[in-house]
Amino acid sequence: MSPLSEFLIFTGIGALAQLVDGALGMAYGVTSAGMLLGIGMPPALASASVHYAETFTCGASGISHWWAGNVQRRLFLVLAIPGVIGAIIGATLLAHLPPTWIRYFLTPYLLAMGLFLLFRSTRRKERRQDVPRGTGLLGFVAGLLDAAGGGGWSALTVTTMVARGQEPRLVIGSVHLAKCIVSLAASITFLLSIGESKLHVVLGLILGGVIAAPFGAWLVRRLPPRVCTLLAGLTVLTLGLYNFYRILR
Question: Which stretches are transmembrane (predicted)?
Fold first, then answer.
């Protein structure tokens, strides 16, 4: 396949992944990394390519959410700082160790959280505006697993905080803005460890993601919180089942 054909394909993948990610708060990294692994790219290079692209796409998405009023400043800071530390450690581990172990930890969590969110979407509960204890630790773990596995930051942070009763709109916006900083830290670590990735793949993911980012931010403001929670639960459950399938292969 020619570089131009790959560029157009990954532009479409980046746009679709970012649209889903912007509306639900997850799935860009998992979708993009899964596609890169599917064409035979080594795990470390696949994760590096996704994080190079996410530095720009999540930046565009995060700014869009900021303009749309979807970002809670304190939540952003509590997630971003520990997340950067975790991303640096996770990227360093991935550059030197096999990453397959992460599926055994992430899969049962995704399955459990997906089912829990589906149950939560049928119940009404007052939304929290505070930042619960343990959010910093959550950011650290999510940053580490995201860099080591090529995705998972949003699945871990969004599902956990929404399950605690926080407003999905503010969670999604804050997570996206923090993800930009976390992806930048992972990208720098990957760049120092394994070098650059395929430029046309990264540019395709970036272009598609940047184009779709404003539409995702607009969509999340139009979706009722219960609908957003339901869609997030279905997405996480699908990701968990997919990871389970990959483990059995």
Answer: 7-30, 50-68, 75-95, 101-119, 170-194, 200-220, 227-245
pLDDT tens for residues 1-33?
677 787 888 888 788 777 767 666 666 776 677
Q: Give long-range contacts, CB 8 A cutoff, 24+ apart: 99-105.
A: 99/43, 99/44, 99/47, 99/148, 99/149, 99/150, 102/145, 102/148, 102/149, 102/152, 103/149, 103/243, 103/246, 103/247, 104/247, 105/145
In three-state secondary structure terms, 128 is strand
The pTM assigned to this predicted structure is 0.73
Q: Which CA distances in Å does 27 have to 50, 133, 221?
A: 12, 26, 18
Determine the Cα–Cα distance for residues 169 and 35; give it in Å rounded to an integer.
Answer: 28
